[in-house]
Amino acid sequence: MRLVLASRSPRRAGLLTRAGYTFEVAPADIDERVRDGESPPDHVRRLAREKAALVARDHPGAIVLGADTVVVVDHDILGKPVDDSDATRMLRRLSGRTHVVLTGVALHAPNHQWCDVDSTRVTFRELTAEDVSWYVGSGEPGGKAGAYAIQGLASRFVTRIEGSYANVVGLPVALVDRPLREVE
């Protein structure tokens, strides 16, 4: 059965490729705003389901994998920064603190649906104003939940990680492996 990744993230595609999967990419454009009263786990779960369901309509008979990742600090969801000022604000909030990275993942296949959420705790060292300015100036924070890429330049900020590294990159491959094999 064909596997379709409902994401335009090159990081998710890279994780799937390195894990040995063959797949197509079909991004899903949905409204990613948080709904009133929606908890962070419910938010990423809903978005993953919506992405998978939307792409499944155009790929009948395929297994469609949807995912959404957010960073949570003080119960606030930090999505992708809208500009450099927003990235700076997010990085200052993460400085010297532990935050949680949540990824909702959903499979949509003929006669089968599955959804789950993975959680990873990440701790940043204290960031100086120069650290933040340098990192934002690198352009790397754009398009990344919480304004950082753990696999990139921001790796120098991370002092501790508890849970799946792949989850922080954007796709908890170990979590989706069994459900994917069960429907193939």
Structure description:
By secondary structure, this protein is an alpha/beta fold. The protein has a single domain, classed as Maf protein, CATH 3.90.950. It is built from six helices and seven strands. Strands 1, 2, 3, 4, 5, 6 and 7 form a seven-stranded mixed β-sheet that branches. The longest helix is centred in the first third of the chain and has 19 residues, at 40-58.
CATH architecture call = Alpha-Beta Complex
**Portion in strands:** 25-35%
Please state the structural category.
alpha/beta
Euclidean distance between termini CA atoms: 6 Å
- Unreliable spans: none
* Mean pLDDT over the full residue set: 97
Please state the overall shape, judged from the principal axes of the Cα atoms. elongated
Total beta-strand segments:
7
> Fraction of residues in helices?
25-40%
The CATH class, by name, is Alpha Beta
How many helical stretches? 6
What series of H and E elements makes up the topology?
Answer: EHEHEEHEEHEHH
Looking at the structure, the CATH topology is Maf protein
Largest sheet: 7 strands, mixed
Task: Domain count, please report it.
Answer: 1
Task: Characterize the quaternary organization of these chains.
Answer: single chain
